[in-house]
Amino acid sequence: MFLMDYRERTKAQLLQDIAALHQQNDELKALERECRMLAEELQSLNEDINRKKKDLKILHTISNAVHQSFDLQHIYNTALDMATTLQDIDMAFIYLISEDRKEAVLQAHRNITDDYIRRAGRIPYPKGTTWKVLNSGQVTVKNKKISDFKLKKNLRCFSEDLTATQSSKITGINRNTVNRYYRIFRERIMLYQASINKDFQGEIELDERGAVHCK
Fold first, then answer.
1. Cα–Cα distance for residue pair 75/110, rounded to 1 Å
2. How far lies 64's CA from each of 69, 94, 107, 119, in Å?
3. pLDDT tens readout for residues 98-153
4. Is the peptide bond before 124 cis (omega within 30 degrees of 0)?
């Protein structure tokens, strides 16, 4: 073991050491970002599993109500109460087709206004999304457009290194959606950094104050 006086080292060696330290620092930051992203994805997967467990429990409750009661209104109410416990569901309703198949008739509902009931208590065939669902038997999901204001808030949360959960609470955007945008932001940053590294062909210099300059 021996000690080397850094004053005896050449300027080129110091520049090489500084460049190596910068590279190690960039690699550590990249590794930290990847670890954070993996942690958030793992949290997202765990929440998806818990949500599916909750959905199965809801289906089990509705199934029990169907088998234990002949009262259709009781079955409707049970189904609606369970449906409104699902994430991002704030209203629910049940329609049945009239015997002449000319109308869809509202049977039960949760959290809808009296004005909606007056306008859509009976929906003539084949008007609106309700009849599309009844005819196809397929669940229809309408995605709500996220405003530019919320997207900018989400981007600011990302730039401040907040987690997806924290951003979701601040912006009001679903956490899974926040995670999706976070991944897009990271991909754009990685592409930008790759383009810079590819185009950079300059030299690193150390001035009298010890500051690093690229040219």
1. 14
2. 8, 18, 20, 33
3. 888 899 999 988 878 888 888 889 999 988 888 888 787 766 655 556 778 888 88
4. no
Answer whether 131's CB lies under 8 Å from 104's CB: yes
199: tokens are 């185009």
19-55 CB burial, b ≥16 within 10 A, e <16: eeeeeeeeeeeeeeeeeeeeebeeebeeeeeeeeeee
Task: Quote the pTM value.
Answer: 0.42
Sheet with 92-97, strands from edge to edge, namely 92-97, 103-110, 122-124
Q: At 21, which amino acid appears? A: L
Average pLDDT, the chain: 76
Report the residue count for the chain. Answer: 215
